[in-house]
Amino acid sequence: MSRLSRAPILVSCVAIAVALSGCQKKATGQVAAVVNGDEITLQEVNGALRNANIPDGAEKDKARAAVVQRLIDKRLIEQQAKAAGTDRDPEFLTRQREVDQALLLEFYAKRVQDTLRVPDKSAIDKFISDHPLNFAGRTIFSVDQIRFPVPADQSVIVGMKDLHTLQAIMDYLTSKGIKFDRGASKVDSAQVPPQMMQQVLALPPGEPFIVPTPQGVVASVITGKEVQPLAPEQAQPMAVQMMRAQELDKVIQQRLKDARAKAKIEYQPGFAPAKTTK
Question: Which among 42, 111, 147, 186 has most CB atoms closer than 10 A?
Answer without folding.
Answer: 147
